[in-house]
Write a structure and sequence with these properties.
InterPro entries: EamA_dom (IPR000620), EmrE-like (IPR037185), RarD (IPR004626). Belongs to the EamA transporter family. Pfam families: EamA. There is one protein chain. The chain is mostly helical. The chain has one domain. It is 82% helix and 0% strand. Helix 1 packs antiparallel against helix 9, helix 4 crosses helix 8 and helix 5 packs across helix 7. The longest helix has 30 residues. The protein is globular. It starts with a helix and ends with a helix.
Length: 297
């Protein structure tokens, strides 16, 4: 690998690794917010992410860049459609996952998290013509086998898992074509969803005798923090997506379900049966093979 290519790739690896690691440990965060409905969590994530990003731009004296970029975007239908699609896809992904956790569909949600990398890898190979060698193809097939074992175990088409995978795959694809730098892109993505989120929060507030008592102080603090923890990894993911192939993004996406898996076993003390363990074995083997292929390059 040439020196210039390697120096371009290494920051992308660091950004992407950090983003998916935080997303993995957000499982704990949603556990703490278990009493708050999924729709309200989503609305707060959108609003507080936007507020945080405005703060970042003000600190960097980059708010004027946001205004100029948005004015340009309004007159670029194709780019606007891509950015809006990314915004809708990631918002839907958040809502589906939080709803799944709140309604005791964690197993099916975790299945979706493992399908996500497959979708990203396949999109990269099929639609973006990214090259994949024998070892990469083998890793995809092994991971697919692991997911198939989990699917057969539960005996029905996991629509929730497929929805998670599809929305994430669409978001990853969109990020490859968004022309804005990470901070501006993230701010615009959340801004496009703020009107709907704000209206929803006003409706919820109007149904409460004392609006400021909708949440406890700890829940309010966690919801504000969720906005920050939503924005930061998305910025890092955007930076990483511009620097590394989509197939490599698919590899890093295994970090999130793996972190959730370890949290479930060692913190939540959830049991794992032999069939589940076998499927995880296939998936971990696929990760090892893919990592070997990337190191060899």
């Amino acid at each position: 690998m040439e020196k210039g290519t390697r120096s371009h790739l290494n920051p992308g690896v660091a950004y992407t690794f950090a983003a998916f690691l935080i997303w993995g440990f957000l499982t704990l965060y949603w556990k703490w917010l278990g009493a708050v409905p999924a729709g309200q969590i989503l609305a707060n994530r959108v609003v507080w992410s936007f507020v945080f990003m405005i703060g970042v731009l003000l600190f960097r004296k980059d708010l004027g860049h946001l205004i100029v970029s948005f004015k340009w975007l309004v007159h670029q239908p194709k780019q606007f459609f891509i950015v809006f699609s990314a915004s809708v896809a990631i918002s839907a992904n958040w809502l589906i996952y939080v709803w799944a956790v709140a309604h005791n569909h964690v197993i099916e949600a975790s299945l979706g998290l493992y399908i996500i990398p497959l979708v990203s890898m396949l999109i990269g190979i099929v639609f973006l013509r990214e090259k994949a060698g024998f070892l990469e193809i083998m890793s995809i097939l092994l991971a697919a086998a692991g997911v198939a074992i989990m699917t057969l175990k539960y005996g029905y088409v996991p629509w929730l898992a497929l929805s998670l995978a599809t929305t994430s795959g669409i978001y990853s694809l969109c990020k490859k074509f968004i022309l804005f730098e990470a901070n501006i892109g993230m701010t615009i993505e959340t801004m496009l969803m703020v009107p709907a989120a704000g209206v929803y929060m006003l409706i919820i507030g109007s149904q409460t005798p004392i609006p400021f008592e909708i949440y406890s102080p700890s829940e309010g603090a966690l919801l504000i923090g969720a906005g920050i923890l939503t924005a930061l990894p998305l910025i890092w993911f955007a930076e990483g997506a511009k620097r590394i192939p989509l197939t490599m993004i698919g590899f890093f996406q295994y970090i999130t379900p793996s972190a959730a898996f370890l949290i479930g076993i060692f913190i939540f003390k959830e049991p794992i049966d032999p069939v589940q363990f076998l499927s995880f074995g296939f998936i971990w083997l696929s990760i090892i093979i893919y990592a070997f292929a990337e190191v060899r390059k």
